[in-house]
Amino acid sequence: MLRLRPQGLYCEAGDFYVDPWRSVDRAVITHAHADHARPGHQRYLAAAPGEGVLRARLGEIHLQTLRYGESVDIQGVRVSLHPAGHVLGSAQVRIEHRGEVWVVSGDYRVESDRTCAAFEPVRCHTFVTESTFGLPVYRWAPQSRVFDSINAWWHDNAQVGRASVLYCYSFGKAQRILAGIDASIGPIVCHGAVEPLNRAYRAAGVDLPQTRLVSEVDDRTSLGRALVLAPPSVAGSPWMRRFPDPGDALASGWMALRGARRRRGVDRGFVLSDHADWPGLQQAIAASGAQRVVVTHGQVPVMVRWLQSQGLQAESFQTEFGGEEGAEA
């Protein structure tokens, strides 16, 4: 059904691509992270909840949207989009042609939260999966426990007038943190890369606490009690000089690795990812019912070998996914 071309994953029967990394005429998009949704395509098809984020990131595009579960016929190929649980508007792409069904899952997470629609298993013959955290060491604690730890860290810093700078990915991770923390602890300040995405989430009906840009906070006492959400790229930059001697932390699945916090030079590391962990990957693959699995990015050789040991037909596509959020997942 799908084959790999220089532009990306191509469905010849429907003459469209899924998350192509080169310019094409028709692109079906799983979600708005930059390694999956790139500028320059003539036509885009994506899930309706992600419209605002896609337009915020890509500007003026020719975009057709579908509600989750709604299908469209593209040259005799039936295409529908189903929740992936990754970020706002993330979708698995179900492709059906002549009785054969493929599902391209994009990036996904099986633990639900209120910032996006929960992952929905979709039965298929062939399941195309990521494997960002496809090693047994990656097993996420319940997110409520992680948010309790973030709240306690922020509260302790606020008690001594120390800003709490939490590095996190601007799209998806930041909004998930905002929805999960105790906003009564103090003011919340967001970097300029985060705030436009907050607005897109609110416009889509996601309830987030009040946030401000640092330029909107004149009171140094307020800054000393603030939780500051910023992308990791600003660490050590002039922007950080606004916060003398802050406590800093990184929220990422990579914090599950011993020594990761030390290598990133932060005080704390919170293990929080928008991708499936090792048990989550196994759960999603099993729920698909697929006998054939194609792995696109992440721990590809490990996942392929494990799948084959389970009696499944497994292979990989060499893609260009994982480039943007992979370092901050």
Write the layout of secondary structure elements.
Elements: E1 2-5, E2 8-11, E3 16-18, E4 26-28, E5 43-47, H1 51-58, E6 63-66, E7 71-74, E8 77-83, E9 91-97, E10 100-104, E11 126-131, H2 143-159, E12 164-167, H3 173-180, E13 188-190, H4 195-203, H5 220-224, E14 227-230, E15 247-251, H6 260-264, E16 268-270, H7 278-288, E17 292-298, H8 300-309, E18 313-316
Parallel strand pairs: 3-4, 4-5, 5-6, 10-11, 11-17, 12-14, 12-15, 13-14, 15-16, 17-18
Antiparallel strand pairs: 1-2, 2-3, 7-8, 8-9, 9-10
Summarize the structure in words.
- The chain has two domains: 2-137 and 275-328, Ribonuclease Z/Hydroxyacylglutathione hydrolase-like (Metallo-beta-lactamase, Chain A), CATH 3.60.15.10; 143-270, Rossmann fold (3-Layer(aba) Sandwich), CATH 3.40.50.
- A hairpin with a 4-residue loop joins strand 2 (8-11) and strand 3.
- The protein has eight helices and 18 strands.
- The chain has helices at 51-58, 143-159, 173-180, 195-203, 220-224, 260-264, 278-288, 300-309; strands at 2-5, 8-11, 16-18, 26-28, 43-47, 63-66, 71-74, 77-83, 91-97, 100-104, 126-131, 164-167, 188-190, 227-230, 247-251, 268-270, 292-298, 313-316.
- The chain is of the alpha/beta class and 329 residues long.
- The mean pLDDT is 94.
- Strands 7-8-9-10-11-17-18 form a seven-stranded mixed sheet, covered by helices on one side.
